[in-house]
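User: Before I run my own analysis I want an independent prediction to cross-check against. Here's the chain; please return only the structure tokens and, at the end, one sentence I can use as a sanity check.
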Amino acid sequence: MSAPIVFIDGDQGTTGLQIHDRLRHRTDITLFTLAAAERKDARRRAEAINACDIAILCLPDAAAREAVDAIVNPAVRVIDASSAHRTQPGWTYGFPEMTPGQAERIASARRVTNPGCYPTGAIGLLRPLLQAGLIPGNYPISIHAVSGYSGRGRAGVEEHEGQDAVNAPSFQVYGLELAHKHTPEIQTHAGLAQRPIFVPAYGAFRQGIVLTVPLELRLLAPDVDGARLHACLALHYADAAHVRVLPPHEAGVLARLDPQALNGTNDMRLSVFPNVEHGHVLLSAVFDNLGKGASGAAVQNLNLMLTRQ
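Assistant: Structure tokens:
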């Protein structure tokens, strides 16, 4: 039997380049991309996507929708790394550790939508706690996250690594209108009854994310504290290969969080920081925005899908 053909559509951007780099030496698949002269040829792209077994789309949202619309071969399976289909019916959300059975659903799916980088951390923290009833669905959630500048794609990389890099800002908070496109995705897949407040930022480092969610214990049930929140997350991810919940004795000695700590991996580290005196708890996630937040997640989903190819 010949190796499955995996077509990367859009392998020139930050996510596509890293996916290509992670797959290019593998012998269990036939990796295919278009030559530069063919990348904007709609007919050639349609031919390529209909001739593959699994297509990985690393495209802007509109182009990703066009690529999916061009599929007429029912055997073609898709991993979409854009945000075009993350809340759309008929698409399987590509976060294998999110809920029991999610990895199996991804393995057998025809259409998989890769999670966004920020939502991976927010949903990874919140979904288990909401499912367990430790956080009510109507809790007023606020999320703050700082990503490396590669989260902006080519524009961010050029700004910080191009000719005018000396003028690049060291830190910038954005999304001040509180309408970031990842917010509906977070609300939907975390299981929140109301829209969270999400405030993102970029730092002057290439990749990596620190995401935090503060909680007030007075707004939770009387028996919910930092220990219970930690125990819930630890149980949920006990068998997860790529998500680790930091034990309390390790979290307790931390003075800071490094967004670059897991760069180059497909891992995510979750922590719970309680302040008993003030009744506050801080939840945190650290991961690579181009790893577990993008290319690593896509390859993890591809590996699951290949078990059913």
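Sanity check: The chain has ten helices and 13 strands.
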